[in-house]
Amino acid sequence: MSDSIKHECGIAFIRLLKPLSYYQQKYGTALYGLNKLYLLMEKQHNRGQDGAGIATIKLDVKPGHRYISRYRSMAQNAVADIFGYVQNKFVDIQNETPELMQDAEWLKNNVSFIGEVLLGHLRYGTHGKNSIENCHPFLRQNNWMTRNLVIAGNFNMTNVDELLEQLYELGQHPKEQADTVTVLEKMGHFLDDENQELFDEYKKEGLDNVQITHKISENLDIAKILKRSAKNWDGGYAISGIVGNGDAFILRDPSGIRPAYYYQDDEIVVAASERPAIQTAFNIPFKDVKEIEPGHALIVKKNGSVTQEIFREPEEKRACSFERIYFSRGSDAEIYKERKHLGALLCKQILSAVKSDLKNTVFSFIPNTAEVSFYGMVEGLHSYIRTVQKDTLLHRKDSLNDEQLDELLSMSPRVEKLAIKDVKLRTFITQDADRGDMVAHVYDTTYGVIKNHTDTLVAVDDSIVRGTTLKQSIIKIIDRLHPKKIIIVSSAPQIRYPDCYGIDMSKMGQFVAFEAAIQLLKARGMEHIIEEVYQKCKASLLLPKEEIVNHVKDIYRPFKQEEISAQITKIITPDNINAEVEVIYQTLDNLHVACPNHTGDWYFSGNYPTPGGNRVVNKAFVNWKEGNNQRAY
Fold first, then answer.
1. CA angle (118 as vertex; 245, 64 as ends), nearest 5
2. How many CA atoms are closer than 13 Å to the CA of 21, on its beta-carbon side?
């Protein structure tokens, strides 16, 4: 993505189902769980670089001994910092009494972070403040083991105000207005309720307090707690939590917006935001890693039983398509195929734009994240060439001379790496005019490949949000190669609407497609539509969220995709550019052809999977119209 946006967080969960001594004997270390947690997190570092954290829980610890350990970091390389901190706890043992490193029971009783239940988190701060207090996992402490709660998640709620109001009604006083606090306290409240209900029940049966404690630990109804906690949540979420006794869960929102995968065998239960992380860390085949179903929670009890239970009635599955286009690692077998398919589906539009003149067209890609879709486009071009060759040979084989035959058989797309992202440049001079020139040099180029004023340069990007980097850097740099024409091709459709489920795209003014539509309305004397949409959006904010519809769609309704693309071209084309510029976008239909199982496309279509999404988009438009730069939720 040429425009950098912050997005999904990542979760990593491990439950060791055997005693630590088992892993010591089989794998040679009692630190097996920690080592695997490190791998799970490192293989998802793309999901969060603003901070990270881990928590571990030891099972069956005697009273008076710590059983919960947590450490969070905002270091530049937070994952390495965290595990360096943990590793330091073993340095003296390794140097002075190395034989104790082979004693799993001693390590568990004497060293923190050696436990059977492990939870890790990587954070991208989409809107929250970047401080250590905002890093997951969050901990709700209590002297009763079964009232302790650790949670970490990849989530954004659209109705935080409503959830906070419910906490006030329960008599609570949350310390801040954030969805992380509301989620933790809501779960904590119903965890307390469940504890109290069980305590009262067993007290009536005549059990003493120690007996009651054990009975509560055995019989906590995690599914019931989650059902009550999540009843009014509106958002996208994948959340993992651990109760102090060792009961654990990973839950996924009813529309399956946020991703969550798991694997289990007789040794471990593992869950993560991305499938390849599990595959790599544990050397597991693709087919053995399963998705947690929408509206379901994977529940791992302290006794090792594993179930997947419904906590919210599943809705139509609307898994986030941006995960497939950009966010998730392309090493996932399905995602790799889908990104290639996205590239291949662009060929028809590209060939039309270059008038099928492959001889004078050079194909490249801009950011590294567009590389896989670029490969798909190249394969699509080869397929087109084979069709041309086959048809020509079938219909003209008797009239082709040797020179024409050689030219036909040598047809191939000209593929080059032309734009290279350079090291980050420090801007020592801070005046705006100077800074713009420095930004233009973020990318470097390969010279001597383009035929001056003859070749068309086609550059694939995976998506275009603001268009700022294209205008300030990429187009300026590649224009120096003197192409006749520059075609920027987005493997994603036009981003028209804000996200409210975990991607940092919450303001209407951020989107170059929205800017283009507004300019077209004004240019064609249709400004009344802007005012009408504003009034509708403003009025809708007084309605219950379930009754709200997305009125911002009316901004785009008068125009074809090609008209908006043409206006975007004008917006992102810098002054003093010699080459002609054109922007081509993926169609929404082709997105669904390439990614059939991830139909969540609200940022492209405006079709939100939850009622809160429609409130957010209308509020975002009102904010834009009123010059309010705040996010809409």
1. 45
2. 4
Judge contact between 297 and 240, C-beta under 8 A: no
| Angle at CA of residue 178, ends 553 and 318, nearest 5° | 40
Residue 148, token pair as written in the block = 């302790």
- Bigger pLDDT: 612 vs 169: 612
Q: Which domains does the chain have, with CATH numbers?
A: 10-155+242-317 (3.60.20.10), 323-626 (3.40.50.2020)
Helices (H), ranges, 230-353: 275-282, 322, 333-344, 347-353
Sign of the CA dihedral with 145 first, then 147, 148, and 149 last: positive
Among 42, 49, 54, 117, residue whose Cα is nearest residue 277:
42
Q: How far, in Å, CA of 240 to CA of 11, rounded?
A: 7
Mean pLDDT, range 332-355, rounded to an integer: 96
Torsions phi, psi of 310, nearest 5? -75, 130
> Average pLDDT of the chain?
92
Given a contact cutoff of 8 angstroms between Cβ atoms, the answer to whether 155 and 106 are in contact is: no
Note the helical H segments in 88-178.
91-96, 104-110, 160-169
pLDDT value for 367: 72
**Could you tell me which residues come within 8 angstroms of residue 593 by beta carbon, excluding any fewer than 6 positions away?**
341, 345
- Pair of tokens at residue 530: 């802007």
pTM for the model stands at 0.91
At 117-163, the pLDDT tens digits run 999 999 876 555 567 888 999 999 999 999 999 999 998 999 888 88
Q: What is the pLDDT of residue 431?
A: 43
- What angle, rounded to 10 degrees, do the helices at 371-396 and 333-344 form? 50
DSSP 470: I
Counting Cβ atoms within 10 Å, is residue 592 exposed (0-12), middle (13-18) or buried (19+)? middle
Q: How far apart are CA 80 and CA 263, in angstroms?
A: 25
Q: At what angle do helices 512-523 and 561-572 cross, to 10 degrees?
A: 100
Tokens linked to 93 = 């043992």
* Alpha carbon 574 to chain centroid, angstroms: 31
More confident residue, 419 or 590: 590
The mean-pLDDT minimum among 173-177, 203-207, 427-431, 436-440 falls in 427-431
Distance, in Å, from the CA atom of 460 to the CA atom of 365, rounded to the nearest integer, reads 4
Q: Is the pLDDT of residue 433 over 50?
A: no
- Evaluate whether 251 touches 266 at the Cβ level (below 8 Å): no
Q: Work out whether the CA dihedral 397, 398, 400, 406 comes out positive or negative.
A: positive
Q: Are 441 and 426 in contact (CB under 8 A)?
A: no
Q: What is each CA distance from 556 to 36, 95, 156, 550, 551, in whole angstroms?
A: 48, 68, 27, 12, 10
DSSP reduced 3-state for 444: strand
Inter-CA distances, 502 with 102, 553, 582, Å: 43, 22, 31
Q: What is the pLDDT of residue 437?
A: 57
User: Please, are residues 126 and 599 in contact by the beta-carbon 8 Å criterion?
Assistant: no
Beta-carbon contacts of residue 110 (< 8 Å; ≥ 6 apart): none
Residue type, 624: W
